[in-house]
């Protein structure tokens, strides 16, 4: 009933836009190909021969085995005077990039889902439909599913490669975040105000009442220990997925700081790096909420804002920090692309020789993995943003700075009208009975999965994603600053 209306029209229009318009006007492609990103082209073999003073021909070092001539690869001195050429990233260049389709789909679909969410929120705030399902929730869930799927594929790639310690790093951080999650879940609500305890208690009571109405005896759908254990396992997986995005962010942050010349840019880079920490502190009650609700202003304690206003301000701060991270994306990607020149400068300080093929691979692989780095930068941002949007919608919050009191209106479980049973079993009557039964089923689910449960669960997940990203980026900052040999 309620779903087939304005929201369905919005979804169908956006689906047409994704299919017809976005392939030609892609926001993801614009982020890379607007002309601001410069990449370094690898030198050709002829260029390296000219710089080395060698001519193409049959070398005396060629050896003949079983009638086949084995040509040794051309080597050049590492301290050769080589200057890499730069070129702006174009649409043709993106064809050869690894994971470019995944990057384009995630960014474009996220942009479309965000537009659907904004339009749907405007429609719900103006029309105030009472019996309609907010279909933007489905879009947000799809965005989170795509982001997790891409992070999973990127992490699985480290397990496929046998050489290297990436697999051990992921496993180590996964166990570390599992232990950290277990510690966080036993912290009382007086320090971390997620609302998990009250949300789970409300969920258990509602589920038991629902089962009793169905004639079933149950102590609850799941115990609190099982619930927290499941959350801890989920948190360990999220932490393992965000390990290398955090480590990569730290390296790009240091390189972007060295690249930036203006003070305002450096300040924004520092705020962008500390954004996950600011998000984490928003749920630490003694640091933020206690000082705002009960500020030490002498003998009298006058709260600066109401609790609903604080919850709304928290949502707006997270969204503004996500917007800042998106705005600083090109600075970080350019810092990554400069790694090609940085590797060349490091090579010139070394003695010995290097083959031309190895030198070309060293320069070319930086650009070819640009979309992998872009995904590692964008995916955590997408997860935080749309988890926050879900928190607002499912948690029954408001966007207004001074919101009205939100009363969690429970869905009334009205019995089926007797007229539907008394009518003849016509097609129209059967359809009405089916619609009312579906409405009652959805109403029962709303009574079980209440906004109080979603507030606790989504607040914890938003906080955890930010905490994982800051923990890994802080470790990466320490590693690249003090443990890597310059």
Topology:
Layout lengths: L5 H15 L6 H7 L4 E4 L3 H8 L10 E3 L2 E3 L4 E3 L7 E4 L11 H28 L8 H25 L5 H20 L10 H18 L10 H18 L1 H17 L3 H19 L7 H5 L13 H21 L1 H9 L1 H10 L4 E3 H13 L1 H25 L23 H5 L4 H22 L2 H33 L3
Antiparallel strand pairs: 1-5, 2-3, 4-6
Helix pairs in contact: 1-4, 4-5, 4-16, 5-16, 6-8, 7-19, 9-10, 9-13, 9-16, 9-19, 10-12, 10-19, 12-16, 13-16, 14-15, 16-19
* Shape descriptor: globular
Estimate the strand proportion. under 5%
| Rg measurement, Å | 28 Å
Oligomer: single chain
Unreliable runs: 405-425
The tally of strands reads: 6
Q: Order of SSEs, N→C?
A: HHEHEEEEHHHHHHHHHHHEHHHHH
* Strand numbers in spatial order across the main sheet: 1-5
Largest sheet report: 2 strands, antiparallel
Report the structural category. mainly alpha
Q: Could you tell me how far the N terminus lies from the C terminus, measured between alpha carbons in angstroms? A: 65 Å
Q: Give me the number of helical elements.
A: 19
Helix content, binned percent? 55-70%
Report mean pLDDT, rounded to a whole number: 83
Explain the overall architecture.
Helices cover 65% and strands 4% of the residues. It is mainly α and 486 residues long. The strands form three sheets. The chain has a two-stranded antiparallel ribbon.
Brief description of this entry?
This protein is mainly α and 486 residues long. It has helices at residues 6-20, 27-33, 45-52, 100-127, 136-160, 166-185, 196-213, 224-241, 243-259, 263-281, 289-293, 307-327, 329-337, 339-348, 356-368, 370-394, 418-422, 427-448, 451-483; strands spanning 38-41, 63-65, 68-70, 75-77, 85-88, 353-355.
């Amino acid at each position: 009933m309620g779903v087939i209306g304005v929201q369905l029209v919005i979804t169908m229009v956006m689906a047409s836009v994704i299919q017809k318009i976005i392939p030609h006007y892609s926001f993801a492609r614009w982020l890379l190909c607007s002309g601001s990103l410069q990449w370094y082209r690898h030198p050709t073999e002829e260029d390296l021969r000219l710089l080395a003073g060698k001519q193409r021909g049959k070398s005396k070092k060629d050896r003949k085995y079983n009638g086949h001539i084995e040509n040794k690869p051309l080597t050049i001195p590492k301290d050769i005077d080589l200057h890499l050429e730069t070129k702006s990233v174009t649409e043709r260049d993106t064809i050869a990039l690894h994971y470019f389709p995944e990057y384009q789909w995630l960014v474009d679909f996220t942009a479309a889902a965000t537009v659907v969410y904004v339009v749907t929120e405007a429609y719900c705030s103006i029309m105030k439909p009472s019996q309609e399902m907010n279909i933007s929730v489905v879009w947000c869930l799809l965005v989170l599913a795509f982001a997790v799927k891409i992070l999973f594929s990127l992490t699985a790639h480290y397990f496929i490669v046998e050489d290297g310690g990436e697999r051990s790093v992921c496993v180590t951080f996964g166990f570390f975040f599992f232990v950290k999650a277990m510690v966080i879940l036993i912290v009382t609500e007086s320090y971390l105000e997620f609302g998990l305890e009250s949300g789970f208690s409300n969920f258990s009571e509602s589920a038991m009442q629902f089962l009793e109405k169905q004639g079933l005896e149950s102590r609850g759908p799941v115990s609190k220990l099982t619930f927290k254990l499941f959350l801890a396992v989920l948190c360990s997986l999220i932490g393992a997925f965000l390990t290398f995005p955090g480590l990569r962010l730290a390296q790009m942050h240091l390189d972007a700081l060295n690249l930036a010349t203006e003070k305002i840019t450096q300040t924004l880079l520092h705020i962008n790096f500390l954004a996950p920490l600011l998000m984490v502190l928003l749920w630490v009650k003694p640091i933020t909420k206690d000082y705002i609700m009960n500020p030490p202003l002498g003998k009298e304690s006058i709260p600066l804002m109401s609790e609903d206003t604080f919850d709304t301000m928290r949502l707006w701060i997270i969204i503004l920090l996500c917007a800042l991270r998106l705005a600083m994306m090109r600075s970080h990607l350019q810092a990554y692309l400069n790694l090609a020149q940085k590797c060349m400068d490091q090579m010139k300080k070394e003695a010995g020789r290097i083959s031309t093929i190895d030198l070309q691979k060293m320069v070319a692989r930086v650009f070819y993995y640009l979309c992998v780095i872009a995904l590692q930068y964008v995916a955590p941002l997408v997860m935080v943003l749309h988890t926050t949007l879900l928190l607002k919608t499912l948690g029954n919050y408001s966007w207004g700075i001074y919101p009205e009191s939100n009363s969690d209106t429970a869905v009334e479980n009205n019995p089926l009208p007797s007229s539907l049973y008394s009518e003849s079993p016509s097609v129209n009557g059967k359809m009405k009975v089916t619609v009312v039964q579906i409405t009652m089923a959805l109403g029962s689910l709303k009574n079980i999965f209440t906004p109080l449960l979603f507030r606790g669960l989504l607040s914890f997940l938003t906080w955890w994603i930010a905490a994982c990203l800051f923990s890994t980026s802080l470790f990466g900052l320490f590693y690249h600053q003090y443990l890597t040999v310059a």
